[in-house]
Write a structure and sequence with these properties.
Helix content: 25-40%
Oligomer: single chain
Structural class: alpha/beta
Strand content: 5-15%
Largest sheet: 7 strands, mixed
Length: 232
C-alpha cells in the first residue's frame, strides 16, 4: 500500500505481495524474488474512509483465495503502512489467515498528532505535519478518528500479528508514531525488527543511488527473504 496521505496502497508474499509503494519499494520487492500484488485502491477525497480500507482488504481476501503461495508478507509505506495494519486488524477480527510477516515503512499517518516529531517537522520536504493534517481531513472526519480501522494504534491488542519490520526516518513528522507502534507491538508479543534511520526524511529512499539508501534497502530485502525462506 503506498502512501501520500491515502493516495495509493500495499501487501507482500513470496509468491504474492500486496504492495502500495512505488518504484523504490517495488524494486526492493523484486530483488527479494517475490510476486508483487499492487493494490490500486480508491483514493480520497473522492472516496473517503472506509473505502480505501475495504479495497485493500478485498485485495487481501482475493489473494488468499486465488493465488498459490507458501508465505505472504503485507506492507506499505506511510499511509499505506496504516492501511496494511487495518487489513491485519480486519483479518484478525474475521479469523482469517494472517500474513507471515509485515513491512511498515514510516507508519503512523493517523497516529498521535501531539508527538514531538509531529510538532517539530511542520515544513520538511515531501511530507510534514501540515500536509498530514490536511490529508487526514480529506480522508475522514472526527468520528472516524476514533475508529481503529482509521487509526490502527487505537486497537486493543496486536497479539497474533506477524513478525514486523518497522522503518522510521529521523526528520519525519511520523517518526515518533512509528516508534510508538513498534513499542506497542513489542508489548503485545509481536516480534519487531526496528530500523530507525538517521539523517533521513519521509520518502528519503527516492535517492536510490545513495549508498545509505541502498544499505537500508538491503535491510528490507533481508527481512523479506528471511520470512520467505523460513521453514514451515
Amino acid at each position: 500500500m503506498s502512501g501520500s496521505g491515502v493516495r495509493r496502497g500495499i501487501l507482500f508474499p513470496d509468491h504474492p505481495v500486496i504492495s502500495m509503494s512505488w518504484t523504490p519499494i517495488l524494486r526492493c520487492l523484486l530483488r527479494a524474488n517475490c510476486m508483487v500484488l499492487f493494490v490500486d485502491y480508491r483514493l480520497a477525497p473522492d472516496y473517503k474512509f472506509p473505502v480505501p480500507v475495504k479495497d485493500c482488504f478485498r485485495a487481501y481476501s482475493w489473494a488468499l483465495k486465488n493465488l498459490s503461495f507458501r508465505r505472504l508478507v503485507i506492507g506499505g509505506d506511510s499511509a499505506g503502512a496504516d492501511l496494511a495494519m487495518s487489513v491485519m486488524l480486519l483479518a484478525k477480527r474475521k479469523r482469517m489467515r494472517m500474513p507471515d510477516g509485515q513491512m511498515l515503512i514510516y507508519p503512523g499517518c493517523a497516529g498521535d498528532p501531539t508527538t514531538e516529531s509531529m510538532c517539530r517537522y511542520k515544513d520538511t520536504p515531501l511530507w510534514n505535519s501540515v500536509l498530514n493534517r490536511k490529508a487526514l481531513a480529506l480522508y475522514g472526519n472526527e468520528k472516524d478518528y476514533q475508529n481503529p480501522l482509521f487509526r490502527p494504534v487505537l486497537a486493543d491488542s496486536f497479539s497474533g500479528f506477524p513478525k514486523a519490520y518497522i522503518e522510521t526516518a529521523e526528520f519525519d513528522c511520523l517518526h515518533d508514531a512509528g516508534v510508538q507502534i513498534a513499542e506497542r507491538y513489542s508489548r503485545d508479543g509481536v516480534p519487531v525488527i526496528p530500523n530507525d534511520t538517521k539523517r533521513t526524511m519521509h520518502g528519503y529512499d527516492i535517492a536510490e543511488k545513495s549508498p545509505y539508501v541502498q544499505k537500508q534497502v538491503d535491510k528490507r530485502i533481508r527481512f523479506l527473504r528471511g520470512i520467505f525462506l523460513e521453514e514451515d
